[in-house]
Amino acid sequence: MAENTVRIEGTVPISPTGTQTVAGTVTANQGTAAATASAWPIKVTDGTATASIAVPGSGGSALLVAAGTAAAVTSLTAATTGNGTAYDFGAARANITAAIVVNGTVTSGTVILQGSHNNTDWIPLVTSAALATGVNVDLSKTGVAYRFARAVVGTAIGGGGTVTVTIAGA
Questions:
Q1: Does 74 share its domain with 63?
Q2: How far apart are CA 9 and CA 39, in angstroms?
Q3: Same structural domain, 54 and 95
Q4: How far is Cα 140 from Cα 100, in angstroms, rounded to an integer?
Q5: What does the alpha-carbon distance between residue 78 and residue 44 come to, in Å, rounded to a whole number?
Q6: What percentage of the chain reaches a pLDDT higher than 70?
Q7: Domain containing residue 141: CATH number
Q8: Which residues constitute the domain of residue 49?
Q9: Is the pLDDT reported for residue 52 higher than 80?
Q10: Is the dihedral of CA 143, 148, 151, 154 positive or negative?
Q11: What is the three-class DSSP state of 136?
Q12: Quick check: 21 pLDDT over 90?
């Protein structure tokens, strides 16, 4: 097959159809970036949920779930004593909740919801009333800002039952 080279000066309109083969390097760019006020938006997503970005001055630098909440996580599982697993919200949360589910026969015991800025020094936020069989409890603290939270059994769970505690923040 013979090839011919044609030199063209000026503009030639082309309306290609089908697949076009290109030899060599093709370069494209987005153009000059706009000023910040007119910048292109960026989405951070896992394909299902979209996160927002908090920048310094608006609550710290972090990725936040678009609705402003984090999924509940289990801090204590079938516990009678001890400190629960700490949860890192990724940014300080002003509203923290612990849901206490009482399992089996429980005649006494308390659970404390704690918060921390550094995952080392823990502050008690709220303590449950004495726990009882069949009575699940919600502990909530609003108007505070802690990045980490955990549940702790304050007074040992008596009666042979246990507690499972999940925490969430918004």
A1: no
A2: 37
A3: no
A4: 11
A5: 36
A6: 72
A7: 2.60.120.1110
A8: 40-68
A9: no
A10: negative
A11: coil
A12: no
